[in-house]
Amino acid sequence: MVGRAAGVAPPLPAGLLYVFSRLGQLVPTLLTVSLIAFVLIRLSGDPASLLLTPEASEAERRAFRDAHGLDRSLPVQYLLFLGNLLRGDLGTSFWQHEPALRVVLSRFPATLLLSLTAIAIVIVLGLAVGVVAAMFRGTALDWLVMAGVGLGQSVATFWLGLMLILIFAVFIPLFPPSGYGTPAQLVLPAVTLAAYYVAVTTRLTRSGMLEVLGQDFIRTARAKGLGESATILRHGLRNALVPITTVLGLQIGELLAGAVVTETVFAWPGVGTLVLDAITRRDYPVVQATIVLIALAYAIVNLAVDLVYGALDPRVRVR
Amino acid sequence: MSDQPRITRRQFVTSTLGVSAALATPAWGQAPAAPRSVEQITVLQLDEVASLDPLADFTNPGLQMHAHILEPLIDFTGPDFKMTPKLALRWDNPTPTRWRFKLRPNVTWHDGTPFTAEDVKYTLETAKGPTSVKNRYLARVQKIDILDPLTIQVELDAAYAPLLGSWVYLYIVQKKAYEAGGSAEFGKKPVGTGPYRLVEWQKQQQLVLEAYDKHWNGPHTPKRIVVRGIREAGTRLAELQTGRADIVFGVPIELAKTVESNPQLKLVVQEGVRPPYFVFNSKKPPFEDRRVRQAMNYAVDREGIVKGILQGYGEVRTGPFSPTQAAFSPSGPQYKLDLDRARALLKEAGKDGGFSFTWLLRKDFMVKDEEIMQALANQLGKVGIKVNLQFLESSVYTPRYADGEFEMSVNAWGKSLEADSVITGLRWLSENSKFYGNPQVDAAIGKARSTFGMSERTAVYQEADRLLREDAVGLFTHAQSELYGTNRRYPWQPWAYAGNAGLLTYYVPKG
Q1: Tell me: the pLDDT tens digits for B343-369?
Q2: A77-126 tens-digit pLDDT
Q3: In Å, how far are A163, A188, B40 from A177, measured between CA atoms?
Q4: Is A228's Cβ below 8 Å from some Cβ in B?
Q5: Please, which residues 86-105 of chain A have a Cβ atom closer than 8 Å to chain B?
Q6: 8 Å CB contact between B504 and B494
Q7: Do B399 and A49 touch (CB under 8 A)?
Q8: Omega into B222 within 30° of 0, i.e. cis?
Q9: Average pLDDT, stretch A123-136?
Q10: B193 with B109: CB under 8 angstroms?
């Protein structure tokens, strides 16, 4: 993602400049995303046919297309869409009759809560279990962890969610099966969403730690009498963290976009459920607004990851 | 989300859920339901409500809510669609094109203000407007006059006797609130006269209704109704099993046993609400020959579909109306499996060598669509008819259906009161159809529109039904049942309104 040359820590303005230039790079990315979203959605069918009943007359169909600008040519529709986008107007939801941007933004807090909880689980559990597995390499514990990792990576989210509901809500009534609002309702969806990424992070941390722990500077640290925990955490983990951060950053973006299945299973009122509903209803404006906002969030996460690099490894600071 | 694994994944999961539930039940026992009075019930619909403005949302989840918060002039309720005066007490026809409604006195809106003819006039006029989703029901309206504060008169351009049956969806909105906030505001905070008022609505989470204590028919029970939309059937069922829901819509056949085996739950089975109709394109070969259409009706094994694939949760159909509907004609042909007759008819039509055709289908148009279509294709194969099934997304299917660009297709229609809406809606009138036309059917429907006596009109509809069945306008096979899961502490039974068996009240109906 960043292959920047080593340099001296920059004065603040240069750092800010870097941030701004990275933000500037978002523009073509978002333009491309908006174009793809626009074209793909329109290839999938006529919204007038879907939103109006099959009994609707041709006149009713025409009126609907006129009202939503669907009668114009695709390039014109796209330019209009872009112009409105610049003004923060992403159209009006066909289905809810409200500004699409407001509809999507109103669902963001629920998705953020779910994603951040899942990310917290991923970071804490993934790193801790990975480090422990590396320390006890080759033991039964390590074997058990790796078996769990294999399972976590291969189980379908959809199935895992339903199984967790069945076990921890129906048979052992510990948590509510679905819904939003109480901390108890957050547990099952967050675990479901985190499972795959915990597995990936554990595997990555374990192999990263094994690589680092075999290196000379760890032997030096131990030789100079540093405690085991300090050796592992301060010297081992910190060095293993750089590649993990890269992958985690990508995963967090994925997680934001990938909450669709989890949210649907748990009826979680987030962007994932919204976008699935919007796709089945051919609610173009909402789908477009969601894609643009998710792309923006993804890009911002990537930027944040690049900045975290600098903090972790002084060698990759920007000039 | 991709189309390919859709069916298999769902089947896999539902069957896994059912099996593991059955296995695990004896070991763990039933989760104790939280003690909760029937003061409040929770209903799980399949989908979220879009808008509470009845002039902007005409989808089922929306209609279910409109009918609790708002009221039409006249309704048709219960299993036999009994005429039930709501905001209008009486009506008459001074001339065939003139309808005079005497409104119910002493009705108040949820904000306490009195209901008057002004509100009715305003609603009808707004509903006729270009942005209204219900303007087709007012296309015939020429003039709306207020004769006195509780009398309203509507003038049509032509006689239309089934008017009341087609106006059940015209929920009356409060003029003051609708004028002030427009569709968007009213859609969020509707002011109605109905048995329930909206107290809270958190989108995609829950919608809370409370019984309106000053309703003209007295307060209804239960006091509070919480409505949620959950797409995933397994999740809906888990909510029911844990005692957190009282009525759950859309129980898949695979999970019916799980509900039935649980002593706290009850499976409510409602017969044929939205049967599929397989439509022939009678204007294209080979289906322009009605003997071919009849032959196909004799070639399919209806019992096999209902018993084998739907596991008994369905009923056999031989025409557009079920024997429980008024428009059903007892003298029409009763198609049943008769391969010899099918072959004979095909021979008469010169098709004894068989033929092949493409069947245009809409994804998810009925329960178990792929299994049933495969079974039908196999059965038709026995009389030499080769079928090529083509499943399309509804946005691609719909325009092709409407334009008659198919050899054979499918549609589904609600079990509703007036045969007029079924026959018009399915495009079986020459004037609105690109794939069927029968002057005798046209004449019958035209005659029904000016026949004001209900029983006389029913006789005309029965004649139309007989004609349509004899003509084999479609291949009629079955109607799948609707399955609902309920908690025994709230003894709910489907009680239809709007003359539509698919629309049900959540509260306990009053007479």
Answers
A1: 999 999 998 888 999 999 988 888 888
A2: 888 878 888 888 887 887 877 888 899 999 989 998 999 899 999 999 99
A3: 11, 8, 19
A4: no
A5: 95-98
A6: yes
A7: yes
A8: yes
A9: 90
A10: yes
Q: What's the rounded Cα separation, in Å, for the pair A28 and A78?
A: 15
Q: Is B382 in CB contact (< 8 Å) with chain A?
A: no
- At A16-70, the pLDDT tens digits run 777 777 778 778 888 888 888 777 767 766 666 666 665 566 677 777 777 777 7
Residue B198 in 3-state DSSP? strand
**Who's near A278: CB < 8 A, 6+ residues apart?**
A93, A95, A286, A287, A290
Torsion from C-alpha of A162, A166, A172, A173, nearest 10 degrees: 70
Write the ipTM: 0.79
**Residue type for position B173:** V
How many Å apart are CA B20 and CA B29, to the nearest integer? 13
The dihedral region occupied by B106, where left means phi > 0, alpha psi between -120 and 50, and beta the remainder, is left
Q: What is the pLDDT of residue A315?
A: 67
Distance CA A209, CA A139 (A): 16
d(CA A221, CA A102): 55
Q: Which residue of A has its CA nearest to B13?
A: A159
d(CA B126, CA B56): 11
Contact B28 A172 (CB under 8 A): yes
Establish if B33 touches chain A: CB-CB under 8 angstroms: no
pLDDT digits (tens, 9 = 90+) for A171-207: 998 999 998 888 999 999 999 999 999 999 999 999 8
Nearest to B233, CA basis, from B483, B506, B505, B400 = B483
Chain A residues with beta carbon closer than 8 angstroms to that of B53: 97
Can you tell me whether residue B22 is helix, strand or coil?
helix
* Chain B residue with minimum CA distance to A166: B238
Cα A297 to its chain centre, rounded Å, is 8
Of B204, B241, B393, the CB nearest to A269: B204
Which pair of tokens denotes residue B341?
């007759």
| Short-list B298, B290, B287, B281, CA closest to B379 | B298
A177 and B1 in contact by Cβ < 8 A? no
How many other CB atoms sit within 10 Å of the CB of residue B371?
15
Q: What are phi and psi of A68, to 5 degrees?
A: -105, 15
State whether residue B32 sits within 8 Å of chain A by CB.
yes
Helix, coil or strand: residue B427: coil
Does the beta carbon of B116 lie under 8 angstroms from any beta carbon of chain A?
no
Token duo for residue B305? 């579909």
DSSP conformation class of A200: H
